[in-house]
Structure formats: structure tokens, C-alpha cells
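Write out this protein's structure.
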Amino acid sequence: MSTPLIGLIAHVGKSGAAPLVETLVTALTKKSIHFQIESETAKLIGLESTLTSHDLGASCDLLLVLGGDGTILRVLHNLKDQIKPIFGVNLGALGFLTCISASDCLKAVECISQQNYTLSQRTLLDVTVLREGEVVAQRRGLNDAVISRGELSRLIKLEARIDGALLTQYNADGLIISTPTGSTAYSLSAGGPILTPDSGVFVITPICPHVLTNRSVIVSDRSELEISPCEGQDKVYLTVDGQELVTIKPGDTIRIRKASQDLPLAMLPNVTFSEVLCQKLKWSGSAL
């Protein structure tokens, strides 16, 4: 059983990143695990590299990402079509996407050495903005697509269709279309349900809806969703996984469907999603 080539990427602005990178590089070397290191990560410990995250995606078998959920999302977006399995080490506060804490970083090396981890296939969103029938923007996301009002304090009106059929018109602060992975992120804060990673659905969650009967709707991930500003609505804004802001003009259509690729996300063996929820959300049994 050959050991995979590892790509090492860290959030260089995180406290404790440099000593953690040093520890992991030493441990990987001792285990004779071949690795490549991203350029900014290399600078943390005085090494030289010209490799980007995208380069590591093209050449490596597994990416060891040090940071929080935001770091993993940024790495995923930088990979573009070079998607590889990601093993996350948590340097953040919550870290639903990371599978191990910084204090257990040597356990990460042991797991990689023995290939003692599982890969959870996470659905990705394919988000396309159409203007007069032409594609003007295309994004891929792990968590969610969010259509919002930007910095202005006003409601926006959005029309939502599922496979061409009208669902409803939302009058709200915005709308979140989330994958199961993203159901524990912004959608959860907005009152959406928690979905298991293998549930095979998307959830549409309005943000502070003006009409109280507007609630989250769960739809099959085989569906194609279309979100458009209602007639007379000024421009609104789209973000995918909280990354680059895309301006949506009147007449535009945001088309959302399941991407052709999944993200293989490393998980520790014999750790269930229920256990992850209990740990991350600090559930400890009955509150009665």
C-alpha cells in the first residue's frame, strides 16, 4: 500500500500556524511520507516553494489543510477543477469540516501513514448566473449560495423555481441555498434544518422573511433551482461560500444544481455524524 503524496497548506494568519507546520513537516519526514508545501505556508518555517494550492491539487493525492472551515472553503475554490481529498486540521473555533484538532496533529500524520481515515463524499453546488441567455459568472460551492441585499438595509424580492415550476416569491433579507454540508453554517443560523451529509437534498432558507409562512424548503439535489430578482427589484448580490461578490442585475437568473464532482472530505474512522454534531454543538443529552 503506497503512501499518498501530501500537499500541505496552512492559514498563515492563524495563531499557532508556524509551529504546527514545523511539527507536521518533521513528523511527515520521519515517517518518510512525501509531501509538497504551498508557497506562503513554506515561508512560515523558512522554506522555499513556488507552488500554489491549485498546483498542489494537480500533483498531490491528499491535501492536509491547517485552519478552520473558512480555510478549507478558500482552498477548495482555489483548486478549481483539481479537486483532491482534503484532510482538515482545526486551527479555528468550530470547524465542522476539519476532522482533528491542532493538539492531535501527530495523530493526523499517523492516520495518513496508515491510511486510516474515511472519505465522506460531499455534494458541491454548481452556480451559474445567466444574463440574456449568456453565462456571465460561474461558481462552485461546498456550503451555500447566498443572494442578499448587500450593505443596504432593505428587503429584496426574489422568485424561486424548481425544475421550471414556480415555488414562491420571497420577500426577505435574502435567500440561502445550502448543501447538506452547509446546513450547519449560515442556513442553520437563519433557522434552517440540519441535514446529514448523505441526505441527497438541498435546502432553501429565507433570511428574516417578511411573510412568516415562508420557511425552509428541502428539495432533491437532482433538481435545478432558478432564483431571479422580481420585476422592479434593484440589483442584488450573490456569494458562494462567502467568497467573491457577484452583482445580480434585474433580469438575471441564478441557476443552481448539483455539481458533477464531489469533494472527498477526510473523516476519522468510526466517528459518526451524530458524534460530530454533539461535539461541535456541545449537545450533552437532555436539557430538561
